[in-house]
Amino acid sequence: MGTDDGVVVVGAGHGGLSCALALREEGWSGPVTLIGDEPHPPYDRPPLSKRVLVDPASAGSITLADGESLARSEIRLVSGRVERIDRAARKVLLVDGTRRGYDHLVLATGAVPRTLPDGLPGARAVGVQPIRTLDDALAVAALLEDSDDVVVLGGGFIGVEAAAAIAISGRRVTLLEKLDALLPRVAPQPLADWVAAHLAGLGVDVRTSTIATAVETDASGRVTAVRDSAGGRHAARLVVLGLGALPASGLAEAAGLRVDGGIVVDGQLATADPQVSAIGDCAVQIRGDGSRHRYESVQAAQDQGRHVARRLVHPATAPYDEVPWFWSDIGPSTVQLAGRMDLARRTVVRGGPGSGSFSLFGYDGEALVGVAAVDRPRDYLAGRTLLRKGRSLPATVVADESADLRALARRA
Fold first, then answer.
1. What is the CATH number of domain 332-411?
2. Tens digits of per-residue pLDDT, 178-194?
3. Which CATH superfamily is domain 7-112+246-313 in?
4. Which of 129, 112, 220 has its CA nearest to residue 166?
5. Which part of the chain is the Reductase C-terminal domain (predicted)?
6. What is the strand order of the sheet 367-374 is part of?
7. Tell me: the pLDDT tens digits for 55-77?
C-alpha cells in the first residue's frame, strides 16, 4: 500500500477501535484514521443498558480511548459523519466537506435501533427512547428522574438488561415482548424461562405474546401510558425501546457494495472490493461452505477488527472462523453464551434453573454446538474450549455433575 492515505476505519465503536489498535500491534506503520460520528471518544457500550441508565455519573468511567491516547499510538481520531464513499478515487466524503483518501477502508458502522412504526399512535412522543448510544442512555437517565412507571418494549438482551436495572432502581417496570418467550433469537427454552422468572423476581411485570398498540400522551406530548394488544393499559412516563437493531449498511449500499442482511463479506471479512472490509454488527459473513454469520456482540466486533488488522499486515492469515461468544449482566446475575444454541436439537442441563446457577449444553446429534450458563463460569469456559477445538463430550458425561468438565475439555 504505497500512498500516504493508509487505513481509514469508519466507526469508532468496539470493532473500529479494536481494528485501529490492532494495526499498530501487528506492526502496521502507515497512517491510521478512526472516524466516529458521535461527539464522544470511543467508549464501552455494554454499561449503557445497565449502569449508565440509573447512574449517569458513571458515564465518565466508560471511555476506552481518547484523542490523546490514540495519538500516542499514531492513530488519528476524527469526529464526523461520512456521507459518501468514492470507491473509484478511494476517498470518503464527510458531511463537513472533508475528503479523506484511503489505501484500505474498514467499515465498522454498527447498527441502528429499530423504532416503533410511524403509524402507531404516539410512536414519536417525548419519553419514547431507544438505547444505542451514550446520548441515548443519558436521555433515558434524565427521563427516569421523574418516571416512577416505565414500559420496556422488546425482550432481547437490551430490553431485559434495561428492565432489570430500572426495576432494581425502584421503578415499576412492565416489559412487553411480541413473541412467546424472552431472548427469542438466542436462548433455549430453559434459559428463556429462567430470565422471565428472574425478572419477575426483580419486580418486572413480564408480558409475552404482547405488543404495544398505542402510546398515550399528555398535553405536552409526554408519554403517560402504553396500550397493548391484549387490551392492557400500562402507566408510563418513559418507554424504553429494546426492539433490536438493523445493520447500518446504507453507506456501503450507496457505494455499490453488496448488501444482504448486512454488508456482505467473505471468509477474510473483505467485500467484493478488495480495498474495503466490513466488521461487526454491520457485516454478514458468507463463509466458504455457504453458511451465513452475523453476530451482534462486542466480542465479535473486537475479534473481527483484530482479524482484519492481522490480515492487512499478514495477507496469508487464515480465514475468520472464531466461535461466537457473548455475555450479559441481567441484574445481579451473569449470562454467558458461546457457539450456536439456536442449532441445538437437544439440550443437556447441569444444575437447576430454580437455583439460579445452571448451564445448558446444546447438541446437534452427537456434536456440541453451543453452551449457555447462568453464574457458572467454569461450565461456560469448558464448553467454549470444546467449541473452539471443534470437539465434544458425550451428553451423559456432561449431565454428570461430578464430572470436571474443564479438565476434560483441556484434554479433548
1. 3.30.390.30
2. 999 999 888 889 999 99
3. FAD/NAD(P)-binding domain (3.50.50.60)
4. 129
5. 325-409
6. 325-330, 333-339, 367-374, 357-364, 346-352
7. 999 999 999 999 999 999 999 99
